Amino acid sequence: MSSGLTGPPAPDPFWNPLPYSRMRENPERLAWTVLLASFAVFLVLSISVPLTLRYWVEHATVRQNAVLDPTQGTILLYPPRSLEPIAISELRDQVAEGSIVEAGEGPTQATVRLISEGENDFALGSLQLFSGTRLRLDRMRSPLFELSNAPYQALLTVERGQLRVFTNSGVERPVAVVLVTPHGRIELGVGSYQIAVTAEQTAITVSAGDALLFKENHPALAVSSGLRAWITATAIADQPVVATENLLRNGNFTQEMRDSWESYVIAQNVTPGKVSIMERDGRRVAYFVRQGEDNVPTEVGIRQFIDKEVNVYDRLVLQLDVKLLFQSLSGAGYLSSEYPLRVEVNYTDIYGKQLAWGHGFYYREPENSNWKILNGEKIPPFNWYTYRSPNLMELLKETRPARIDSIRIYASGWNYQSMVSEVFLVAE
Question: Which of the 8 DSSP states describes residue 236?
Fold first, then answer.
């Protein structure tokens, strides 16, 4: 017989007590929590919203178009995201951000105007491109709001070539130009600059203004007016140097001739002239001599191949020391071409034509009054004479040199003895 006892009945859930709440016990704490949270949200919004608006006003930009103006030859323009170029031979005023401008290898020049202020056409920045230059217009911006203190911005990539960069300050704000090359980055201030980018290095010459050069894992290098510096794939210049460059190698003849100069002789069935390197008067000299039968023309000389683009330079000056010892042919011959010593610079002009400029030296007056001296001068014999040419860029401005091809120094005529030393072709 079972007892039928099953334990006390389960409590009725209807009568269960409600969960205990501390907030209900202390409503003031809840009120303070809500109040403090609201105040925190208010502080966050009161600070972040103005800062966000300020950041937007300060940094919001609008895109700018560049103006491409070919001045010589045909320029290739690659619009953004385009693989096919457009040949540009006339001014184009809607060159968009992201475009690539390429100057051909032939005689080519063009100007790219970057940013204009207001409604006028006055460009605050411009670039002059020369043959073989490839330039990408990565970013060209102006602030969206006049209240912004940000500068006008131009970010450009120079893959190769030579160019000049000119920047001005606008009335409203300055221009910040940044050049990126395969070797590093260059920030330009207000001024004018010459940039040359080759496979080996990026070189900058500051004509006016200031520039900062940046290379990863190296300290920044400041370059000011009148100085130049360089960046390579692995290094950056220790410090800027004076903004001149000697285009000649071994102009003082202290190294082996075969590494820089080559000699040649012109003599048909007669005793030829000779050229040798020796020490005289405490210096290394190239000595030209011919002693043989008289009244027969000969020539002996040395030459150096330079192959250097000089579009970006403003000055090009030749300097050398000359000493004349003997000449049997008076003056410079009847064609004014046979000097006991003459120097000749061979160059390609901006039109692609190969030309030459030269200067000769003699000490015996022409015996024939009809023999005129052209591009030469009389100097005292047996003494060193330093010759410094005019600025060849100015002298030859009608056929301005774009590339220096070579230089030769030679003696010609009948019999002669002469020396040359300390030869420089300085570009600035």
Answer: B
